[in-house]
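Message: Study each token:
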Amino acid sequence: QVQLVESGGDSVMAGGSLRLSCAASGYTYSTYCVGWFRQAPGKEREGVATIDSLGTTTYADSVKGRFTISRDNAKNSLFLQMNRLKPEDTAMYYCAAAFCATVAQSNSLLSPSTYDNWGQGTQVTVSS
């Protein structure tokens, strides 16, 4: 059974930085595509950044140049470095995983529906 546990969420001032982590277990992590998604109150869940088994990354336009996704296959871990945070980045952030063969068949690497394994989320709050 795939398990994903996020950590690192916090409350920060605009312009600050946070680093989110996701610990994975229960599957061959290196063969899975993983990503970060977020959901603000009253809004749909949206893709933030994804990374495939080869390290190829995809970012939402709203975070390009500010966020960096990375993975450590030896430690079954996923990270999201978030810099120059804005109040509109406030949301619950989720780690998600899917078999890369499945992701390759999807129309959008950032679509939450592409991923079938989810963590419980970690809250990020950015104040102005």
